[in-house]
Amino acid sequence: MKPFNARYFSVIVAALLATVISGCANTRTDASLDLTPRLIAEVKLAAPVTTTDARRPTVALVLGGGGLRGFAHMGVLRALEEAGIRPDIVVGTSAGAVVGAAYASGMTPAQIESAARNVKLSSLVDWTLNSGGIMRGKNLARWIDTVTAGVPIEKFPLRFAAVASDLQSERAVLLDSGSAGRAIQASAAVPGITVPVPYKNGHLIDGGITSLVPVRFARAMGADFVIAVDIYCQGPRADGLGAPTVINRVMHTQSCLVAAPEMAEADVLIAPAIRCRA
Amino acid sequence: MTAKDEQDRAIQAGYEAARAALARIVAGAA
What we know:
The complex is a heterodimer of chains A (278) and B (30).
Chain A: H1 6-22, H2 40-45, E1 59-63, H3 71-82, E2 89-93, H4 95-104, H5 109-118, E3 127-130, E4 133-135, H6 138-147, E5 159-166, E6 171-175, H7 180-187, E7 197-199, E8 202-206, H8 215-220, E9 225-229, H9 243-263, E10 268-270
Parallel strand pairs in A: 1-2, 1-9, 2-5, 9-10
Antiparallel strand pairs in A: 3-4, 5-6, 5-8, 7-8
Helix pairs in contact in A: 3-5, 6-7
Chain B: H1 3-29
């Protein structure tokens, strides 16, 4: 794979053009500011998730971010299903939130795999001329809402939450109610690529910046036993010294440094090494 | 490598890593 190819170049040129053309355009253009992000201290104050069998621990599955490496989560789900393990809580960041929402909404691992394989990635791309990013992320939100049949997160059969990062407070926040599509649009809003998602008090971006593998939110929700999946930090690094590669490596380094102590708090950490272009 | 190949490899990597982790849990509990 070339470290710097025409596709990267066209994306950068488009981003620069969009920034120049739009100037200081306000990203707060979405009328449905229905997201209600919560900090971890607020989550701890709420009633914890419990099991119907008091003798059994509350088990959480935590699915980390990592772009297209998220296909690995489907393999993990398949293995857990074969072993008869069904978590009580599913928490995900970015790609992990995409797979986690589908699973918590009632889809089987095979159904998720089929849906992911059949969607055209190009259909999820919605270009925009906005200073906040080059994609709106609304096509992804619509696809998620279609896959989860439009059911709001709080009505899912399994307790689910997506994690995003709050640009104002610079903290990780939990999204566990309302539209799954909107929550995941925020959780997967890669900085500089996808436009930050507005809510009442500010804007949200990708959860991988502050909590790549959100073990602590799972604990705050009431988990006694946490199975965490890291799909991002163990794989081979991109080669080369082109600007996109270096930026990619910097984001990788910083996200994984921040995530390491939190991942260490999981009871089980599953960390497949995956080579992937995105 | 095609996109489908990458997807297959990622799914398989996740599956094998999870199986190995579960095997470690069982071994630890025994």
